[in-house]
Amino acid sequence: MSFVGRSEAERRVMLKQIGAESVEALWASIPPEFRVQGSLPLDPPLAEYEITRRFAQWAEANADANQYACFLGAGIYDHFIPAAVRSLLSRSEFATAYTPYQPEVSQGTLQTIFEYQSMICELTGMEVANASMYDGATACAEASLLATGATGRRVVLVSQGVHPHFREVIRTYASAGSFDVRDLPLDHGATAAAGLKRMLSPEVAAVLWAQPNFEGIVEDGAALTEAAHAAGAYSIASADPVALALLLPPGRDGADIVVGEGQPLGVPMGYGGPLVGFFSIRKSDVRRLPGRLAGATVDLDGRRGFVLTLQTREQHIRRERATSNICTNQALMALANTIHLALLGAQGMRDVATQSLEKAHYLARRAAQVPGVSLANGDRAFFREFVLRLPGPATGFLRAAEKRRILAGVPLSRFDGARPRDLLVAATEKRTREEMDRYVDALAEWARHPAQAPVQEAACRS
């Protein structure tokens, strides 16, 4: 498709075709006071190399993860991505592929989806995985729908340890009237099994919890699942795929549905997207599975092949019988997950998880030694991120750290105005000892004279 502007001759032909005498005649119905008078206040045209230079100058003004030590987390993580991932994703047969409706011409795409599903099942300890969802948030919401449909109950208990954005999307789904959402409170950063038991009742369809949770705490998945099952409810885990390389997969603890965000597996941070959700279940619920499912079969000659199967989608069957109105998947991002997992392998994933765990604990231990700074959740076990409680507003430290080329974390005041001094900090395998020591030095310097007035952020709030 050409993006070159139209010539005057072409404009005249177009105007003649629609019966207009001039371009101005097209705007005659717009009152003059609402029209722009004269030329637009734009700079004169630039040569290609001048445009490139200008964009490079603008990019240098950004505090990006390539130039700064990045300790951001809260659902989007700065993990290493092998160059082969981008190289393979850029191949035209993947980057421009359309929906694999015709298996005879889509075997490559279908096979990559099948391999992706197999890897997700291995990670989560589940029996069936779909071709992916839009993101972790929609995966959680669709899991809630599946549980309410399977149990015939209307209440979903959602731990406050689930990502706040995920909880917002779940509530948006619930607002249509199909189910109700109730919050499960945290006790020192973790979902309390005792509190869960008090809230369980015959009307509860599912308990949704995160592993690890939003504040990095490792939950007692076995206890939460056992409590849910004792009340006849589903146990839904929103799991981090990197953590699953070390922690016991929720499926092994008996969870009925395991979902999550796949961004840590070969997908760039990208200012929050694009993302990809994974969704895995027990085989008994396969006909309630939302989205696509690729299956292996054989053709008339006995050769192995791949097809889309069990397509319980509203555009394929009667609307009232559909299990979901998500009729697609994030195929390119799921392919990034697949390539990333294949390149690293099981041992490589364990290495990434182990380094992230050890570096996060090193940084947390050193940061907590700074006078006035403590770990908000005490000695709770955590994986890759943790919450620091600072002697002043966290936004003030963020500004100070930025001057030292450090992206110091995510202030929890974005999600809870009652927590202005709490900072969520993540450390992945990419962080070096020098970067972490520099972080602690910056924190110690700021903590000696912390500003007490919070710095107003430009970022949107939840």
UniProtKB/TrEMBL annotation:
User: Is Oxidoreductase tagged as a keyword?
Assistant: yes
Residue ranges of every copy of the Glycine cleavage system P-protein N-terminal domain listed in the record:
2-440
Keywords, A to Z?
Oxidoreductase
Where would one find the signal peptide in this protein?
none
Single annotated GO MF: glycine dehydrogenase (decarboxylating) activity
| Enzyme class of the recorded protein, top EC level | oxidoreductase
Show the catalytic activity. Answer: N(6)-[(R)-lipoyl]-L-lysyl-[glycine-cleavage complex H protein] + glycine + H(+) = N(6)-[(R)-S(8)-aminomethyldihydrolipoyl]-L-lysyl-[glycine-cleavage complex H protein] + CO2
Record GO biological process: glycine decarboxylation via glycine cleavage system; nucleoside metabolic process
Record-linked Pfam families: GDC-P
Q: Which SUPFAM superfamilies match?
A: PLP-dependent transferases (SSF53383)
Which EC number applies?
1.4.4.2
Q: Which family does it belong to?
A: Belongs to the GcvP family. N-terminal subunit subfamily.
PANTHER family named among the record's database cross-references: GLYCINE CLEAVAGE SYSTEM P-PROTEIN, GLYCINE DEHYDROGENASE (DECARBOXYLATING)
Q: How does it assemble?
A: The glycine cleavage system is composed of four proteins: P, T, L and H. In this organism, the P 'protein' is a heterodimer of two subunits.
Biological role stated in the UniProt entry: The glycine cleavage system catalyzes the degradation of glycine. The P protein binds the alpha-amino group of glycine through its pyridoxal phosphate cofactor; CO(2) is released and the remaining methylamine moiety is then transferred to the lipoamide cofactor of the H protein.
Q: Which HAMAP family match?
A: GcvPA
**Name by which UniProt lists this protein:** Probable glycine dehydrogenase (decarboxylating) subunit 1
Organism of this sequence: Eiseniibacteriota bacterium
